[in-house]
User: What shape does this take?
Amino acid sequence: MVRHRLERAMHTLLIIDPQNDFCDRQGTLFVPGAAEDMQRLAGFVHSARSQLGEIVVTMDSHPSVAIERPTFWRRADGQPVAPFTQITHAQVAAGEYAPIDASLRGEVLSYLQALEAQGRYKLMVWPVHCVIGAWGHNIHGPVFDAVGEWERQVQRGAFKALKGQNPLTEQYSAVRAEVPRADDPRTQTDHELIEKCRPRTGLLIVAGEAASHCVSATLEDLFEAFSDEEIRRVVLLEDCMSPVTGFESHARTCLDRSVALGARTLTSARALIEIAAN
Assistant: This one.
């Protein structure tokens, strides 16, 4: 007699920028709460690994000198620009700030004009973080170990997507840069990433740092590419993401917007119960 059994739903886990510079207290852009977020996420991956058909990990991946870093800028008096300084097109046009490489001034002005016209962000100068090859670029230990355990179980690697490699455009979203460049495909829409994340049958479960910036921007771009039904298959692990200090309202807006579109927010413990039942 042939026995028929229902196949268990397999889910995709999207982990956004689970890197030392965000998640370790020694990181250059530590997000308060991120260390605990990643411990919970590692526990989730360990417990849910048999229900995870795909793990996608995005990684902020920067050169040491780039447009959103203090190493790129000087003030009008020649002094350095401090981290967490916002720089606008009007300020650069007025000479308050300038790129250290003066030959880039025209390109920088064009970039800032295009960035501000979109209305999502103005340029923020962040501490130097997630430099490719540095300790801060590495995946935070507990998550690295948990994902590695899943990789050994399924006998293939997690899908890893690097973002932010071009020094002349910012990239919060893993899907595309804030101002994509025609001369650099890395800054343009990552269709492979979108398809890896698209929840056709099971859930897309999302965690990572920071909820106020890279999680928010990535979700906004993914939702633009997803159908209404696919958005309803998205679950945000609300206890596995935290905001940058001072940007708590941005994180709240991200969660509220996601729920309004049809996604859900769950704790990692509640999500485990739900996927175990399916």
Q: What stands out?
A: DSSP finds ten helices and ten strands in the chain. Residues 6 and 165 are 44 Å apart (CA to CA).
